[in-house]
Prior knowledge:
alpha/beta; three-stranded mixed beta sheet; 13 helices; globular; binds nicotinamide-adenine-dinucleotide; binds thymidine-5'-diphosphate
Amino acid sequence: MSNLLVTGGAGFIGANFVHYWLRKYPDDRVVVLDALTYAGNQASLAAVSQEPAFRFVHGDICDARLVTDLLQQEQIDTIVHFAAESHVDRSISGPGAFIQTNIVGTYTLLEAARGQWLGDSAPASHRFHHVSTDEVYGSLNLDDPAFSETTAYAPSSPYSASKASSDHLVRAYNHTYGLQVSTSNCSNNYGPYQFPEKLIPLMIVNALAGEALPVYGDGSNIRDWLHVEDHVRGIDLVVREGSVGETYNIGGNEEHANLDIVRTLCACIDDLFENNDELLKRFPNAPASSGKPAESLITMVQDRPGHDWRYAIDASRMRDELGFEPSYNFETGLRSTIDWMLANEDWWRAILDESYRDWIDNNYSKR
Ligand code: NAD
Ligand code: TYD
């Protein structure tokens, strides 16, 4: 039996992880620490909020006293660290929060864990698992080999630079103090509970509302995509079976150009709307309501500054050492994500509030 502290558990991947963990390990205790920034949403944890094994703490990972008290009170032996500022576009318009949470926040957690786990009252075993991104490796050209665990770091946005910095800190706490850490660097995720400022949920929400689908630059940028349920399964394997001090790249083997993804989403949405009176009534501004294809909303907009062109993951270590294979293929994963968005309209409607719409409007008017 383990006592987990899950930071950022009200965010997209963290919430999926909490659902997965409580289902799979009902004897474990899960304490979520989340500052509920614009990206944090307690509604994503509603289904587990009454479970005795679950506790939600509203607080900041940069609060050293709070983190130390929690580790002590809850006898935490495992930290799974998701909390971060995670959106590249926001890191370009305001990098300060990224430095604070991603770097100072990770340092604060590491210090608290060191104090608690390497002192006199240390638990029998402990693990600090750090959830990171493939963006720390920088950008690839078409013929470059995919990122492996030994690829040199070359982050290029304030977001990826702050995550790279936190990765180095995590590794240093293992090397210098012997803290039992592991790190996973994952490709782009999609699936339930993703905040609709990221490519896939944004395109779905806008297509349903009949709003423009903004594709940056010429839409040729390539990302590797992994369904979030596969990601949390990969994290589970690394936390339980991964070697201490090591890094694991997690990916989906699904490289796709942005414009192709948006077109695929549009085609799926057109299929769903065809002869479906219920959807036509629910979403009267969707292009299908006026007989147009969803693709008619695609709008090419000015490129993101410093936009990385391609990310690709070599996931052979996860496969060979931990037996990990993704279970979703991209097209079925996209379809199930659209189905989830249609079945959970209340969830995304509630977060599309004034301040978020203002941010989107400002951001796009600057392009
Ligand atoms: P998210 O933005 O959806 O959620 C982040 C969560 O962290 C939110 O609940 C927010 O309230 C919380 N948070 C932010 N600052 C905090 C602070 N100072 N103290 C406590 N909580 C705070 O992010 P996500 O997409 O779920 O990503 C989770 C992690 O996975 C991040 O570390 C990210 O770098 C990494 N990652 C994400 C992706 C992806 O495609 N989304 C891919 C690879 C890695
Ligand atoms: P995003 O979801 O922001 O993830 P990341 O920047 O971490 O990869 O963006 C994924 C890709 O989609 C990226 O190349 C930028 C592009 N993009 C658009 O073309 N339009 C959009 O509105 C958004 C949000 C992203």
